[in-house]
């Protein structure tokens, strides 16, 4: 027991002396000039802290002005024509408008959009068995081709009468090099057909060429498309007047029936789509 007490007492005495020594030693260090090595180390640490502080500031300044998209791509604002729902695979077309009459296009006036081939005319590379009306020779891919054109019965009278009341637009899937020459024959004085759209204005959906009426006018209440191909008006079927395809039947009366509708039933409705729904649903 005595041995343990002696050892414990002597240990406390040594620890107390050590603490006093350390206190005296610390007091002597206060106010002393640091060594050059210590100054260098402190300066290096301060410089590193300064650089780190600046890097953090630059990082947060960039983040402050970055749009918070949460991983989503910001899309451009869509036009009114784009607001129309499009089927999957829709690809916006490169639209080209060709003014023919020189008159400004009136958005408030009712518009008739006409297809060209198999609707107003029929053309072929071989000379037909029936009489043809004219020939056009476009240059396509560096080669001059000859097309024999047959006009649908009544087409001249139809265009003249309808053109007095409506704006006429031709929207064709044919190439401009060919179709523009046909239009020059149908409307040589350029007084009837206001505008024309060619293949480069069509949309391609699932390998099919589609004509978007949103490129013709913004007001779809006041437009009718006449086409023999249902794929052509797939985006706006409620605006379509289906017509039988024409080849060489010289007794065809489709344009007479179309003219009767446009000059009769269509006048009773402000929204031409309502007139089409009622007329097309009738039994012939």
From TrEMBL:
Gene3D superfamilies: HAD superfamily/HAD-like. GO terms for molecular function: phosphatase activity. Transmembrane segments: none annotated. InterPro entries: Dullard_phosphatase (IPR011948), FCP1_dom (IPR004274), HAD-like_sf (IPR036412), HAD_sf (IPR023214), TIM50 (IPR050365). Signal peptide: none annotated. It comes from the Eukaryota. SMART domains: CPDc. Residues 105-265 form the FCP1 homology domain. This is FCP1 homology domain-containing protein. It comes from Eutrema salsugineum. The lineage of its organism: Eukaryota, Viridiplantae, Streptophyta, Embryophyta, Tracheophyta.
């Amino acid at each position: 027991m005595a041995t343990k007490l002696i050892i414990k007492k002597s240990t406390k005495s040594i620890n107390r002396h050590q603490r006093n020594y350390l206190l005296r030693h610390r007091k002597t260090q206060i106010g002393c000039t640091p060594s050059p090595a210590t100054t260098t180390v402190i300066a290096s640490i301060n410089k590193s802290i300064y650089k780190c502080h600046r890097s953090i500031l630059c990082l947060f300044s960039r983040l402050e002005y970055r749009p918070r998209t949460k991983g989503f791509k910001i899309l451009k604002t869509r036009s009114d024509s784009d607001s129309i729902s499009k089927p999957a695979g829709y690809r916006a077309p490169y639209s080209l408008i060709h003014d023919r009459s020189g008159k400004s296009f009136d958005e408030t006036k009712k518009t008739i959009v006409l297809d060209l081939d198999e609707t107003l005319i029929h053309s072929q590379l071989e000379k037909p068995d029936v009489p043809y009306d004219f020939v056009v020779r476009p240059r396509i891919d560096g080669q001059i081709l000859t097309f024999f054109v047959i006009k649908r019965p009544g087409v001249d009278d139809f265009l003249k009468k309808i053109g007095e009341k409506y704006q006429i637009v031709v929207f064709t899937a044919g190439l401009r090099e060919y179709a523009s020459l046909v239009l020059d024959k149908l409307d040589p004085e350029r007084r009837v057909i206001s505008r024309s759209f060619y293949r480069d204005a069509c949309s391609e959906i699932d390998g099919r060429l589609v004509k978007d009426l949103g490129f013709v006018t913004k007001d779809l209440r006041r437009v009718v498309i006449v086409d023999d191909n249902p794929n052509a008006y797939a985006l706006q079927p409620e605006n379509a007047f289906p017509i039988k395809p024409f080849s060489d039947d010289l007794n065809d009366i489709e344009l007479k029936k179309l003219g009767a509708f446009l000059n009769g039933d269509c006048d009773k409705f402000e929204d031409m789509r309502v007139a089409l729904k009622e007329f097309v649903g009738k039994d012939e």
